[in-house]
Description:
Elements: H1 13-63, H2 73-77, E1 99-103, E2 106-111, E3 122-123, E4 130-131, E5 137-140, E6 146-147
Antiparallel strand pairs: 1-2, 2-5, 3-4, 5-6
Amino acid sequence: MFLKLRSNKGFTILELLIVIAVIAILVGIALPRFKGMKDEGNYAKAKGELRTLQTAAESYRIHHTGYPANLTTATLSAAVPQVVAVAPKDAFASANDYQYILNAPYYVIFSVGPNGTADITEINATTGAIDGPGDDIYVSNGPTGSGG
């Protein structure tokens, strides 16, 4: 009995289909993980930028007669010492600035979060309670401090 070895050098169509199927399965497993990693990166970026904006708002309050009415680049550059030269854009909505709600003596600065919509609607002037944080990432001078 002699074994006949295959003499042609190439892949059969079946072998190619199996390789393509294995690659497709691996890509299908990897893609959701990359989205999760992107969201984690945006979350960390938002938390850092929100802390910086909170520092800028507190600096403004110390050198002026209260908290700023808004957190625009012009307002932030008026704070002494200048903490932020340009207002950063929201990590989850790059076309928009971070949201800011002032209801003296409390304020909340927040990112819209992974769902892209603002869930926070107000901050109570008496208690500092934040209404509807949902998945928003925020910092506040109220009793809740920060979250998201």
